[in-house]
Amino acid sequence: MNNRTLVKNLAALPDGPVTVSGWVETVRDQKKVQFVILRDESGAVQLVNPATRELDETQQGDAEASARLATTEAISALAHGSFITVTGELKHDERVKLGGIEVKLATLDVVAAANPETPIAADSSLDKRMDWRFLDLRHPKQNLIFRIQTTFLHALRGVWVEKGLIEIQTPKLMASASESRAELFEVDYFEGKAYLAQSPQFFKQMAQAAGFGGVFEVGPAFRADPSFTSRHATEFTSIDTEISWIESHDDVMALHEELMVAGFQAVVDKHGAEIQELFGLEIQVPSRPFPRIPLAEAKQIVADRGYVIPRADDDMDPEGERQISAYVKETYGHDFVFLTDYAASIRPFYHMRHADDSSLTNSYDLIYNGVEISTGAQREHRIDVLVEQARDKGMDPEELEFYLDFFRYGVPPHGGFGMGLARVLMLMLDEHSIRETTYLFRGPTRLLP
Ligand code: AMO
């Protein structure tokens, strides 16, 4: 490792010699003085170099003067984006706009020069930016998104670990569909076929039969979804949890709330000021409990607001989600709402149905700022009922044998949820697309980089 100081730590140091490393954000090459803005993963600092444009006769052969000339010429030739290491004198000077400090250059080492023409600019299209994602990610806003993501996931893990849940990694190569046969990626697998996991659903439930009590996973999920919306990807990071001994989906929602509050609190505590500065947003930590509205009631509320969801027996559509969120915001001042008790007709076979009304399920969707971020439910753990429900959905229980076996040797009542990580971040940061909040987006027409 070199002995660089992170830019964010410079301000706390006294004036004196420092080494910093990073990339060149801008160069202002004036006749008498040169300024370079150097950025690293923690911030930006101004470097200043009094220019030595030529050597007079007395300076010929003077090694120090020659070095100053070489540094000046190197700065004039510096391409934006080049990675450099510099040494120099740190000086606190409140006139310097960028943080009240600057580094007066002694040496400059161009460690890795960039091509002089940068392929993207601030006004490049999202698609073009995605082509050059590694350069796009150098922007402090993009960098902050992934530091927020780190903090958010760390906070969730903190809750899970504290509760004694076990982290699992389920396989992504499967012998059958994990959600429905729609949106399924099929891959050649030696002599046969395999499918990419759409969700860890079956295997997080398996952990309940295995007596794990509670599990969580943060991992990839794949959907062969041909749509080009702002909220769909063909590969996304799914946050999943599953817990035993619940009484109903209420217990799942309670854990879900606790996780969200911990995640948002950690983000606000650690990044609130930066988010304000770079995104102009004041992130709200949600209060508990989140409002809960049965789906049928939510549809009525939306209809009363003048929006009729086109297919009456269907799920909420995106406009319906926006409308119900607007209602919840106006009525309860809340950004989140659990829509509960979905009709069995629009839920998977593994959702438990109401004891007194088999047309409804013990399930919910969590809507945040107008978009679904999560689906959760109590699962049907009684094997005979489960087989019946699979048949009801036109599924062949034989194809599901491996899954149904989990329920033949005893399994406690359980439930859980799956949540799209990029969607949470998109809505938290008021971004327009999950492409902004996904490290490398995958969609129908994007497999690169
Ligand atoms: P569901 O299919 O609703 O439920 O997915 C759960 C959450 O995952 C996210 N998500 C997506 N994100 C980006 N692109 C996609 N194509 C995409 N599809 C889904 C959403 C969604 O709310 N097994 C159940 C969960 C459970 O019951 O535990 C499931 O997968 O944020």
UniProtKB/TrEMBL annotation:
GO terms for molecular function: aspartate-tRNA(Asn) ligase activity. It is an enzyme of class 6 (ligase). Catalyzes the attachment of L-aspartate to tRNA(Asp) in a two-step reaction: L-aspartate is first activated by ATP to form Asp-AMP and then transferred to the acceptor end of tRNA(Asp). It comes from the Bacteria. It catalyses: tRNA(Asp) + L-aspartate + ATP = L-aspartyl-tRNA(Asp) + AMP + diphosphate. This is Aspartate--tRNA ligase. It holds the Pfam family tRNA-synt_2. CDD domains: Asp_Lys_Asn_RS_N (cd04100). Homodimer. SUPFAM superfamilies: Class II aaRS and biotin synthetases, Nucleic acid-binding proteins. NCBIfam families: PRK05159.1. L-aspartate binds at residues 179, 223, 375, 379. The lineage of its organism: Bacteria, Bacillati, Actinomycetota, Actinomycetes, Micrococcales. It is found in: Cytoplasm. Keywords: Aminoacyl-tRNA synthetase, ATP-binding, Cytoplasm, Ligase, Nucleotide-binding, Protein biosynthesis. Residues 146-449 form the Aminoacyl-transfer RNA synthetases class-II family profile domain. It comes from Agromyces lapidis. Residues 201-204 are annotated as: Aspartate.
